[in-house]
Design a protein that fits this description.
five-stranded mixed beta sheet; alpha+beta; Immunoglobulin-like; 9 strands; 209 residues; 2 domains; globular
Length: 209
């Protein structure tokens, strides 16, 4: 009789181990499927002398765009480091594996591009990089905004500090997202931990002597 209880306990323990292994395997597998950046424009650590107009993050795979508006994907352009302001209108456009926004830069110095994308597997991935802005003569210097812009909201018109090159004027983004502070989502990991704990509590039973 005792051997039956022992066997029953062993089967339950094996089942729990299988559930834990499968759960951990499931939670770990998507990590390798997360999108990651393969290119920036302007390039990381580059020196830019002419208004880039457009800023692009290129990833290794198609970005998720479930609602057709690019919700969850965002880019912010800020700088210079000595007195940072925000540039652009906060709108983004998705082109397969690419995320793009438009902006004119302001005073010379180091600028930061902060971005967030939604991977093909549904997980958000975020990061940032910097480049140096050293405008050549004749470049338009945008006024910048004290607060991060929200796409679609009315914003003050940037003032030009020097003569403009009309060809550098950025186009209008096709899809919009209200930018928010870029946060990692930990809810899925917490749910996995709770599921494993609940399984252990429900299946645990001491063998009867």
């Amino acid at each position: 009789m005792r051997s039956n209880h022992v066997r029953d306990w062993s089967l339950r323990a094996l089942g729990v181990a299988a559930v834990v292994a499968a759960t951990l395997g499931f939670s770990a597998a998507p990590a390798s499927a997360h999108n990651y950046p393969v290119g920036y424009a302007p390039a990381e650590n580059s020196v830019v002398t002419e208004q880039p107009g457009r800023f692009t993050i290129t990833t290794n795979d198609t970005l998720l765009n479930l609602d057709g508006t690019g919700s969850g994907n965002a880019m912010r352009i800020s700088g210079p480091t000595s007195a940072p302001l925000y540039y652009g209108d906060g709108c983004v456009t998705l082109f397969g594996p690419k995320l793009e926004t438009t902006a004119q830069l302001g005073q010379p110095g180091e600028y930061t591009v902060t971005w967030q994308v939604v991977s093909t597997d549904g997980h958000p991935v975020s990061g940032s990089y910097t480049f140096t802005w050293q405008p050549a003569a004749g470049q338009v210097l945008a006024q910048g905004l004290a607060a991060a812009p929200t796409c679609g909201a009315a914003t003050p018109t940037d003032a030009a500090a020097t003569p403009a090159d009309a060809s550098a004027t950025p186009g209008t983004a096709q899809s919009a997202v209200a930018p928010t502070d870029l946060l990692w989502i930990g809810g899925a990991a917490l749910a996995v931990i709770l599921a494993v704990a609940a399984t252990l509590l429900l299946t645990r039973r001491r063998p009867t002597p």
